[in-house]
Each structure stands twice: as structure tokens, then as C-alpha cells.
Design brief:
232 residues; mainly beta; 20 strands; 0% helix
Length: 232
């Protein structure tokens, strides 16, 4: 089953400092059929105005993956430290207990980023933060595990969740395959370009909630970058 979520059908927030597309029910956007997908709690595609700041939010029991597409995103709140994520970087924050997090744009240009929240299985640990990079031009065609709480992925950022987050870039005409346990959930979001998943076409910034599909054939109809999130 592949549930296509086109960009025009996503929830939205629009004001002078934030433009956001919500793939799941989030804050004021509530949709009866857009509830958590497995352990994936939310996925927001945000454009934050220069010098703008998001208010602090409690993040107990949550793994937060931030993928910065353009600009710089910085964090404030009770995690401490000087935390910045720049274009092409991917950040994982494991929240621990009793922590709050706020994001702001310290730059002079709008910052575009995706924020993914996944339920944690170990919320009592100390907060942790790791950074890696989105696959570069030399890694085209291969799905790279960016973060994982499953065994066998020592080079990935360590998550406290039974999940993993993968990313890749595909040139036009290329194909990638992914095997999915029928008991698990997957969500694919296109960062740019156009792909087809088992024949279902995803335009830029669209998503697809997937389950009970043993094999995913992903064809790049145009040069594309996308993320795949797999959870229980």
C-alpha cells in the first residue's frame, strides 16, 4: 500500500516568518488520516525567515533529525551548547528527559530544512547530538543510512529508536531498490526532483506512506534527492 501525499494536499503554516508544509498532524494542523506512521511522529518541511525563531518545545522521548537544505539552523533551549546545522548537513538530537528545543535562523537569508520526529525507546538517557552529511555527488544512486537504531550500521548516527533514516540522490533514469519487511512502515519524502515508487509518482516536496510492500523500486524521472524513513 502506497498512500501518496502530494505537496498541495499537505497541511501548512504561513506567516511572515515561517512557511511550513506538514506531512502529519502537527500543532494547529490536525487531520484524521494524517496521524503518526508507525513510530514516525511528524515530518515538517520548513522555510524560516532570517533572524526568525521557533518557540521552545518539549522534546521528551523523541529522536529529532534535521536535514538542512539551504542556509543555517541553530538551536537554543535546555540542551545547552552552540548547536548549528548548515547546508548539506544532517543532525540527530536524542532528547533524553525534561528537555526543550528551539530552532532559529541566525543568517541573513531564509533557511530551508526538514525536521523529522521519531518516537524514542530510551528517553531516560542523557541528551546526545550527532551530525553527518547528506550524500554527495559521488554517492549518487546508493541509499545511505544516515541514522539508525538497528544493528549493523556502525557508521550511521546512533538513534534510540527501532528506526533508520536513509538518503540519496539519483540521476535521471537511475533506479534504486529497497526491501521492506511487511511488518514495518516506510515514509519517503522528495527533497527535490521527481521519482516513481512502484509506479506511483512523487513530485518535489511530496511524500508517500508505505506498508505491506515487500520491495520498493524507486525510479528517478528527473534528477532527485529524497529521504526514506523506516520504523516499526
Amino acid at each position: 500500500m502506497i498512500d501518496l501525499r502530494e505537496q498541495a494536499a499537505l497541511g501548512s503554516t504561513s506567516n511572515e516568518w515561517l512557511q511550513a508544509a506538514h506531512h502529519f498532524s502537527f500543532a494547529h494542523y490536525q487531520h484524521s488520516r494524517r496521524n503518526p506512521w508507525g513510530d514516525l511522529r511528524s515530518l515538517n518541511h520548513n522555510i524560516l525567515a532570517p533572524r526568525a525563531e521557533m518557540r521552545p518545545q518539549r522534546i521528551d522521548g523523541t529522536e529529532i533529525v534535521t536535514v538542512v537544505r539551504k542556509g543555517v539552523i541553530a538551536h537554543a533551549g535546555s540542551l545547552g551548547g552552540n548547536m548549528r546545522v548548515a547546508t548539506g548537513e544532517v543532525e540527530l538530537v536524542s532528547s533524553g528527559r525534561g528537555k526543550a528545543l528551539a530552532s532559529f535562523n541566525p543568517g541573513n537569508m531564509p533557511a530551508e530544512y526538514l525536521e523529522i520526529r521519531i518516537a524514542s525507546i530510551a528517553s531516560a538517557g542523557a541528551p546526545a547530538r550527532t551530525i553527518t552529511r547528506f550524500p554527495g555527488r559521488r554517492q549518487r544512486g546508493e541509499l545511505i543510512v544516515l541514522a539508525s537504531g538497528l544493528v549493523g550500521y556502525r557508521q550511521a548516527m546512533p538513534m534510540r529508536a527501532e528506526a533508520r533514516v536513509l538518503g540519496t540522490r539519483l540521476p535521471a533514469g537511475a533506479t534504486s531498490a529497497y526491501r521492506l519487511d511487511r511488518r514495518r512502515h516506510a515514509y519517503i519524502v522528495t527533497c527535490s526532483g521527481e521519482i516513481a515508487i512502484n509506479g506511483v509518482v512523487l513530485q518535489p516536496c511530496s511524500g508517500a506512506a508505505i506498508t505491506e510492500e515487500a520491495t520498493l523500486r524507486i525510479d528517478a524521472l528527473k534528477p532527485a534527492e529524497f529521504l526514506l524513513i523506516e520504523t516499526i
